Amino acid sequence: MDTRERINLCIAAEYSKTPGPRTRAEGKYSAEEFLDVLLLQRFDEAVQSGKVLCVNLDGGYGYGTSFLEEAFGGLARKRGIQAVLDSIDFVSNEEPYLRDDVFSYIREAVTGSEKKK
Amino acid sequence: MKYVPLAVTLLLGVVAGVLLGQLPCLTVQKTIDLDGLSSIFVGLTLFLGVNLVYQQQSTAKRGEKDILIKLCQDVLLASERLDSIFCRCYKEDPLSAQSIEEILGGIQRYNNAIHSLEVALKESQFKRKVDLKPIKDQREEYRSVLTESPFPIRYDSGTFRQQQRQQLAVREECIRLSLAVNKL
Q: Rounded to two decimals, what is the model's pTM?
């Protein structure tokens, strides 16, 4: 079990309860905006201080595949798959399987983006 | 009704014994001594004990199968509800907040149904005999079809047919799973 301290990020409370599409061009509350404005900054903060970023997925209306893939797959594309796997964790009590799904988006970040194209 | 096979087996045993006794090469002892009586008693006790244990195991196995098949049906029902929600909303452009919420709720119900099936399977004695990977992969693919961009703004024109293809895949997978569980 990881004993490192945690930095929390609750998407519903800090970003939006109704996460939107993949890119900014497609609409508001996009994954691209979430990644640039909040996730990257919080992730870097966690890595620099040797902590784990704990992302809480509960509380919202639900997530589209495109939002999760672009946000967390995008984070892995920018910071490296292993670096992300080492410093991130998820809480999802409302949809327990979501945690595994997001980890698979991170692991397949490169092939996922190729699929998308 | 559950004692019928037992009674039939007993009857067949008696008939077979009588017929064997008619064979000219066999001599049947008409009386029975204490050794014989105790042998019969021990044999019967063993038979009834083994039968009782078997019946209990068989009942538990049947019960687990019934639960798993019921959970497969729940997955099917949840997917049908999701289909109905999608067919009602997919033409909206842009999708209303209520439709988005309903679609995401439907997806959650469908995913929860598969999750419950997975939990039940892990707790059952069949956990190594039934493979849930295909239905879990299919769940992710279905979710992707329904929530890939431009969702939650609207749906592309081809999404309806893709969604129907996913419905078909869910039905096929649930039937495959139910039959696999039933065969165990």
A: 0.79
